[in-house]
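Case study B.
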Amino acid sequence: MNAILTHLPFVIAVTVAIAGLAVVLWRRNLIHVLMGMSLVESAVNLFLVALGYRHDAVAPIYTGLRDGGEHVYMVLPTVQALTLTAIVIGLATTAMMLSLVIVIHRHYGTTDVRDVRRLRE
Amino acid sequence: MNTLLAFWSLHTPALAVALPLLGAMLVMLVPAERFPQLRGIVFFLAAALGAFAAINVAGQALADGACTYVFGAGPRIGGGPEATCTTFSGVPIRIYFHIDAAGALMLLVAAITSTAAALYALRSEEGSSGLTAFQPLYLLLVAGVYGMVATGDAFNFFVFLEITSLAGAALAACRIDRGLAAEAGLKYAAISSLGGLSYLVGVGLLLARHDLLNIAALSQAIQGGGPSATDYAALGLMALPLAMKAGTVPMHQWTPDTYSRAPHPVSAFLLISSQASLFGLFRVAFTLFGAPVVSTTSLGAFLAVLAALSMFVGVTMAIPQHDVKRLISHHAVSQTGYMLLGASVALAVLGDAEKTAAFGRDALAGSLFHMMNYAIYNGLLFLAAGAVVWRTGKRNLDDMGGLGRAMPVTMLCFGIGALAIAGIPPMSGFASKWVLYESVFRYSPLLAIVAMVVSLLTLASFVKVFQAMFLGPARKHLSEVKEVPLAMAFPMLLLALATIAIGLFPDVVMQRLLLPAADALLK
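Model:
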């Protein structure tokens, strides 16, 4: 049971990442592509948080420890800090890319990736 | 005054990043329509002060061997990476900047090019739409690049990587240009974002395996215990996106689109942001992994093939181009191939101390030499081509001609850049390519021959461009064209002078800057 609990988050993270990549590669609407990228991003964040997780551990807050003297495990806080940073960065990236899609739609009248390739011409 | 000086000397490494960041915020507070001059002054001061701090740090690092700055409480300078071991269990948790000779070289190059391009931008971007966005984003890009080359923390590198990606994509898109620039920006943003995520997973794997983020401590852990399968997976996940962001084949398609649509001074500095990614690749391959335990032979050979392909594909794509900035952008891919070539040869022979001493070290130094020269002469080419586009309003070579009479200074600067990129003595490009030919030849004569052939093709391509732009009969619709103002000519002349100076005294640069930098990476 514990083994499943430990590995399940990674399995889910990989599944979500593959789903996201599939959307990025095969969807034609730019908005869908960006949704796929958000999926990949969430998968990476899940992966990072899962790295620090122990099912028998408590949140890494020293003052919150009820039995101060006894030996308890804490989940790793470093990855949580990394994830918070990655979420903020991801938000900024997504917002910027969406605004670029709006600009592209205004000028090209489409968000289909097959039509958004005027640079090549 | 004394306290200010003490503050400066204590915090220079942090200030190199903080000043452009602060400037980016400040410049946004000045209304663009009412006080354009004040805005320009704040913008240039922030870029110049950041560059001054970066040069200062580079000088310190070159004099003392390396320069460490620890963020947070406690002693900041000195003590090396060990000073960051502050937890009771001895785990280095604090973020720190570690600038060795190689980082110092990158800081110098970034400082020179960023200041020249900022000075050029003062005039070339004057009064254009989107200036509100341009100035803060440019300063963000500068801060990101300084951070990428200075940091000693694997996750911190990711943060700076994302800052440069965001700022670079937004800058590429900030002219909109009937949607074309937005398309280029979106492409760059999407590719950088996926690449960044891949790098982050790599960092996550290393953190899970070693419980460390500090690059110096990580490299000890990886090289000390012998790398595991996890380490190799992390190497791939970190190295590939960095190679992509540097613009190597087969992941180069974004480069011409992004470089050619960005405002001219940004094209010149986006090169440096790509170089910072390439430098990150060197950091991962040499500093983090490195010789004693990793079998780098196959990775080096693989990268060498990629490098040869980049050189060849870049130049063959460049020859038929008519858009002058797009043409130079394709050459940028080709030149990136040269830099990667030297480094991958060094990587391939890393396990063999004898070969490393015989030519591996020279190959890496040549690679860094070419990075430095390329940043300067390709920046110069973008600025000079940008000057022509700025004056004529044309990007297509077929619409130009006979501009040499009207724009002699621009012609001179473009000519110097073109001779340098083609590797003609006495320009800097010749010196670095010569070091690369010599060292690569001893690894594989075939690769050296490819490099020489590509050099010839580059020359042919630039003869064509030079002829199309500046020579030939004067065109009627270009009769009104004048020379660019001094504010734009001066930064170009500065870069041209640097190109010639490096070409005339390659030995000095090699001994003072490049061999220490190569040794710092090989250590």
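Chain A has one domain: 2-65+73-120. The remaining cases will be described in the next quarterly update.
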